[in-house]
Design brief:
14 helices, Endonuclease Iii, domain 2, Endonuclease III, domain 1, mainly alpha, two-stranded antiparallel sheet
Length: 247
Amino acid sequence: MTETKNKTKTKPKSNKPTAKSAGRSARLSQGNTLGGVSRAKIVSHLSNSDKKLAALIERVGPLTLTADQMQSSYQALAESIVYQQITGKAAQSICKKVFTTFATEAFPEPHIMLASPMEQLRSCGLSSGKAMAIKDLAEKTLAGVVPSVEEMHLLEDEDLAQRLTSVRGIGPWTVHMLLIFRLARLDVMPSTDYDIRKGFALTYYSKSKIKEGVLPTPSEINSRAELWRPYRSAASWYLWRATDLAK
């Protein structure tokens, strides 16, 4: 299984990831700060850097993006694999079946996952690709390829991405979601995400162009996003909200 770039169903639609799992615990974003930076400072920078983005910010309102720290990198990544390319409701159902099958409140520990027959995992609703991906995740967790939560906080975005994308089924999109919604990294730009592209079009394109269904390329978004550094994660959140406003 390979991760596709345009995720329309697995991107967090709210302020944080949908599932409630053992991979989540204490907030990294509290009150008036996000990732240790004042929310007002972030919004002010984005508004002053880009007039069109400023108009979107005015329509959306306060920056309420939140991020939740992980207790277990293995648990969080296993969850992210399940959520790929399906609805949140379907993913929650599969997670519950896994927990029931193994009589746990979270994904089975890596050594148990590795010893589990594929048929057992498939009976929980996992596709063969996702089952193999989670097994590979378990193997690489035991081998030390997948960093612990403590290690993740010490690694630069690029170094973390290099290690995580060596796992079957984990691509840049999944890493970007983890960086934004789990690690509160402030300067992440998931420009291949479908709803980011759609939100960008709604914010920057003419009505006629939007009606034609024209979407920007990731490179076009990345070029504009240079204005938003070092707070591209917050800008991304506002672009996601643009798609919500259009519904």
